[in-house]
Amino acid sequence: MGYLISRRLAPLLFSAVLLAGCGGGSDDDADDGDDTPPAPSYQQNADQAYTYLLPLYEMSATRKAALDSMVQSPNQFLHVSTLADANSKAVTTPNADTLYSSAFLLLADGPVQIDIPDSGDRYFSLSLLDFYTNNVAVRGTRVDGGAAKSFWVVGPQWAGTAPAGVEVIRSPTNSAWALGRTYVRDQADLDAAVAVQRQLTATATASATSTPASLGTATPAATDWEAFFAYADQLIVENPVSAGSAADALTALGLGSGTFNAAALSSTQKTDLEAGASAAYQRATAAAQGGTVVQGWVYPQSDLGNFGEDYAYRAGVAIGGLGALPVQEALYINGAGDAATPQRYDGTHNYSLTFPAGALPPNGAFWSVTLYEPDADGSLFFYDNPQDRYAIGGNSPGLRYGSDGSLTLQIQHADPSSGEVNPNWLPTPSGPFALILRVYLPGSALVDGSYRVPAVQPQ
Fold this sequence. Notes:
Helix content is 23%, strand content 25%. It is of the alpha+beta class. Among the domains are: 130 residues, Sandwich (Immunoglobulin-like), CATH 2.60.40.1610; 130 residues, Jelly Rolls. The longest helix is centred in the N-terminal third of the chain and has 27 residues. The N terminus is likely disordered.
């Protein structure tokens, strides 16, 4: 996963000084019955503003890295047409099920036409995210039934008429991210999947496209607090939307005009700015690992991908899963791990995951359990194993079911079959590892919580 206000900082600071000087009024001025809550402190406003702006920052940093690589241009799709393997280290928690296509759209000068493929019975989705990480639309299999469609993606100020047969999708921000996913059943299916993927195209309709100023600005570290706010202030000007419950905090910090100047802050304000932003960043980082735990699995919140004013959750997802789909389109359920190591399992132990007969994850597309090994900084990548097996799902070839119709996945380091091919074995490293269950087009029982994934059992 909408994602302002134009006030200068100096008048606000001047007003604050005047108010501080009036703090010694007589008792006659006091209203003992006034239960109005005190105004937020500068530190609290910095905390709230940072929480609100972090997803905008992450989107912009991701775009700049992509476009600066010279591999990708604005308003054009970059198709990744190979399946990730153990050597894939560009993005943490790679996907073993889908091919990705990415386009960063610049909409200030006019619409961008997107044509999605005729995918038939193959799962395909195109998510259109505004620059605050909300899914403006998700088109493809679920909405369009696999049929080819044409869209004009337009910015908030566009006024006009699209050609006949072209649907208009309006982004609330002048920048947007189009992220396509094309399902691949296995390596033998790759060529057919690529043929569908390559039918996804983007074409700018404007004769020229202006470049946002932020693309010419170096991206500061998210923990360089003063530089972060100056950079984010520029992004707000490029992508202004209503800030909802965060509006007062942005105004209090003088954000929204693109002229934020940390040098104008007092030493006390700088200290408070850093303290508030640091607290917000630490909370967002912790939230990236959070969720509701049921039977050893961590479920996302129902507002994933369309966050409304749940800015804290939005910030956590931006850190831990930028571009996440809404739960109606896909559910990402993390294994809770062992009690001593949250969201990590111990590869010196053997585990199993048994789905009773008739109780596989309900879905309209596919499901899979993917295993990851953490690197030194905690990023998750596929575990390099002789079987080149990184995930097992409902469409994995040769799965063996029990006589009662149940399906048991064996999750362990040592081969449980003495060298015999075992399609139910998901190899683990000898050290820590993580599990993620992905379910695309999840059934209603999974979305509403009446179906729960069985627990991973230590053996």
